[in-house]
Every structure is written in C-alpha cells, then in structure tokens.
Amino acid sequence: MSKEQILLTTYNLQGLTLKNRVIMAPMTRSRADNEGNVPTDIHAKYYRQRASAGLIIAEGSQVSPRAVGYVNTPGIHSKEQVEGWKKVTKAVHEEGGKIFLQLWHVGRMSHPDFHNGEKPLAPSAINPNSQSYTPDGFKDTVTPKEMTREEIKLTVQEFKTAGKNAMDAGFDGVEIHSSNGYLIHQFFNNSSNQRTDDYGGSMENKARFFLEIIDAVKVFVPEDRIGVRLNPSLHGIFGMEADEDTIPTFEYIVNRLNNYNLAYLHLSEPFNDVSEYDFLVSNIAAHFRPKYKGNLMINAGFDQESGNQVIEKGHADLVAYGKLFISNPDLPIRFAKNAELADWDQDTFYVPGEKGYTDYPKLEEETV
Q1: What is the DSSP letter of 75?
Q2: DSSP state string for 319-342
Q3: Euclidean distance between CA atoms 99 and 97, whole angstroms
Q4: If DSSP codes are grouped into helix, strand and coil, which group holds residue 185?
Q5: What b/e sequence results for 259-275 when a residue is b if at least 16 CB atoms lie within 10 Å of its CB, and e otherwise?
Q6: Which of the residues 24, 250, 296, 334 could staple to 232 if both were Cys, CB 3.0 to 4.6 A apart?
C-alpha cells in the first residue's frame, strides 16, 4: 500500500475539517441497558477510543418511545438521554474528533412488546415478516398500524425535536436514518407503502415524508450539518422487496436532495448479491455519484484497499467502516501503518457490558 493514501487525507465537509476520510459508520450495540435507555460512561469510553476517525456517526437513536424496535438502544428524546450523550460528545471532542448522531425510527420493524401491546407504526398495514430484537429475544414481527396523517405529522415533529436535542447534546450534526428497511425507507418502497393519499403511489408522494423530515430538522440543525443515509438496492432482507420502481424512486430522491446544502449523502452498497435482478444496481457508488452534487459517503464491505480505490476513482468522497471499527478502535492509524487488523467477536455485538465493546486494544497497546 502506498504511503500516500487518499483515505488518510483531510477533508472539508461543508466547513467542518475532518482529519481523514475514514468514517465510523453508525452501529447498534445495545449497551443502553438501563431505565430510560440513557447513554452511560461506557458509551463515552467507546466513542473516545474511536475518535481518530475523520467523523464518527453515532449509533441510531430513537426519536421517540414509538420509534424503538431493538432492546437496549439509546434514545434522543428525553432530558436524561441528552445529558448522557453530552458525556459522549465531550469525550470525542476532547480527543479532537467529530461526531454526528443518527436519528432513528424503526417503524414496522418494531414489536408490540415495546409499546405496551400497541402495534408499531408504518406507512401501510403490511407485515414485514421479519424479526424484532425484544427484551425476550427475537420475536416475529406483526402487522403494523397504518399511520394516520396526524401520526405522520407528529413523527415529523419528533425528528425535529430529536435534531434540536442532538445539537443541545453537543453533536456536530445529525444523520437521518432513511435506510435499511426502517420507517422512512418503508415510505419509499412499494412492498411496504400502498397508501392512496399524498404519501403513497407516485415517487413524489413516496418521498414526501422524508423531505418533510429534512425540512423540519433543519429548523434546529443547519442544512450543512445534516447527513442522510439511503440503501437503494436493499432487497430480500429487513422485510423489503425491491421492484422496477425502486431505483427510479431513489434516483428521484437523490435528485431532490441536490436542492439542499446537506453535509453528505451516505449510501450503502448492496448487503447481498443482487446481480440476478436486472432492476437493481450492483455498484451503488458508481451509479449515484454522477447524480449527486454534494459530498458522497459510501459504506458496506470496504477494506483499506477498496476504500482508497473508490475515492481515487471519483465514485465517493468518504468511506464509512462498521465492523472494522468495532475491533480496531484506531482504524485510521492502523491504515496509516499498514498494520494487521484485529478480528471482531460477533457474539458480543449486542450484549451489555464492556466485553466486546471497549476492551479491543489500540495498536500502541498491542505493541507495549
């Protein structure tokens, strides 16, 4: 690997100087195992350890109690949660890092166990036939409740308030989670949205909820501190089934995003093999780079070499890494030294405590 790695060059993200282009992707870790799902000292320790990233995108955090769908995940809707996140942002900033918070609503991927027996919310009453990670383990999803127009408006306001709370907690910005089969993504897709009002049917209608959320969030968060995440070729997982309308819908959405001055667009490459589906795109970065005028971040399956290559080819500006950051807290430093990378322990991804969370050593600790 050449010493001159473009991944390790500084980057001007709408006036926010990133020390490198190695981004820590948002990852659910289920460590908020307390009353109120409040971030704690171990969250602060975990993110401090990873502050060598050009930008940390902290884990998806529910915008309201109705947004939760996975056990022990933190929120950003209560005063206690805001105070907990302040510890995290302080720790990262003390190390010279930058950190955004991902705003999350899982929609139909939730379970009545989280909502006192009430059905989770969704664009339409269609069961994703997937599983939700509840306090009693994985349970099958149920047919959700189709959101009323009033519930849609309320949810938009919940994202708006969550954006304000994130800024109050000291985050440098927010990422709106509009991907991976969760609520906003559910509005984009024909397999989850069969509404006949102005939130369903046409591409414009399917994008309406998402754009209303951006417009609401930017009241408290500057546009250039808002990132959004999309997964255009998601198919066959998280209850999502793509069709011939899928890619044109995402092309429409990306084009609409050009009207904003966002921090970045965060895209995911396919999570599984979609080459047999001629209506899907196998190389997301190459396909959408010419269509988006702003900063483009790409994610899913990249290593050091492919991360450098995708930027060198001009297909992306930033590369987000997930699992590699779990087991390599100083990932950019390891890239700089072309050092061996540690393997992660998948059995400890979603369990309470520091094991598999804050006990992965940095390179300097390994060589002592």
Answers
A1: B
A2: EEESHHHHH-TTHHHHHHTTPPPP
A3: 7
A4: helix
A5: ebebbbbbbbbbbeebe
A6: 250
Look at the pTM and tell me if it is higher than 0.70. Answer: yes
Interatomic CA distance for residues 82 and 218, integer angstroms: 19
Q: Which helix (H) or strand (E) holds 173?
A: strand 173-177
Among 52, 43, 58, which Cα is nearest to 97's? Answer: 52
Calpha distance 211→225 (Å, rounded): 16
CATH 1.10.10.200 for domain 6-366, yes or no, is no
Domain boundaries, the chain: 6-366
DSSP helix/strand/coil, 164:
helix
In sequence order, the 6+-apart residues with CB closer than 8 A to the CB of 89 are 99, 169, 170, 171, 172
Burial of residue 340 (number of CB atoms within 10 Å: 0-12, 13-18, 19+): exposed
Cα(44)–Cα(206) distance, integer angstroms: 37
pLDDT in tens, the chain (368 residues): 445 899 999 999 999 999 999 999 999 999 999 999 999 999 999 999 999 999 999 999 999 999 999 999 999 999 999 999 999 999 999 999 999 999 999 999 999 999 999 999 999 999 999 999 898 989 999 999 999 999 999 999 999 999 999 999 999 999 999 999 999 999 999 999 999 999 999 999 999 999 999 999 999 999 999 999 999 999 999 999 999 999 999 999 999 999 999 999 999 999 999 999 999 999 999 999 999 999 999 999 999 999 999 999 999 999 999 999 999 999 999 999 999 999 999 999 999 999 999 999 999 876 54
